[in-house]
Amino acid sequence: MQQLPRELLPLANRFYRSHHRSMKANGQQQIWVLRTPDICACLCLQPVETGHWLTALLVAPSLRTKGLGSQLLRQVRGEVAGPIWLFCAPPLTSFYQRSGFEPTAQLPESLSSRLQRYQRSKSLVALVSLPN
């Protein structure tokens, strides 16, 4: 696992595009990847008030069910200080719970308003992983 330096951010976006995803990394985020040697899993962490907001977790479809997403989540949790929040579709809740995330109603204001906006058009659950 590694945090991509900003100059390699295009590699993450190429990974997302190669799997026909509209996800996109930007320079304000920390980009974390697993490589084999090419990127096989990626996620983005956006700094927010007292922690980070996790977005854009993607594992290459041919490598799913091998534990790579869980591995990346656990390793990032060990490297990043403060809480990590995310929004997910209800069917994904158990996946994230196995990696230490729990449902929460306590969100930083910036995420609370964003979640309310997103929930107008889709069903989402807010989860948090607190530091050990």
TrEMBL record:
A GO MF label: acyltransferase activity, transferring groups other than amino-acyl groups
Pfam family, one: Acetyltransf_7
N-acetyltransferase domain residues: 1-125
Matching InterPro entries: Acyl_CoA_acyltransferase, GNAT_dom
SUPFAM superfamilies: Acyl-CoA N-acyltransferases (Nat)
Protein name: N-acetyltransferase domain-containing protein
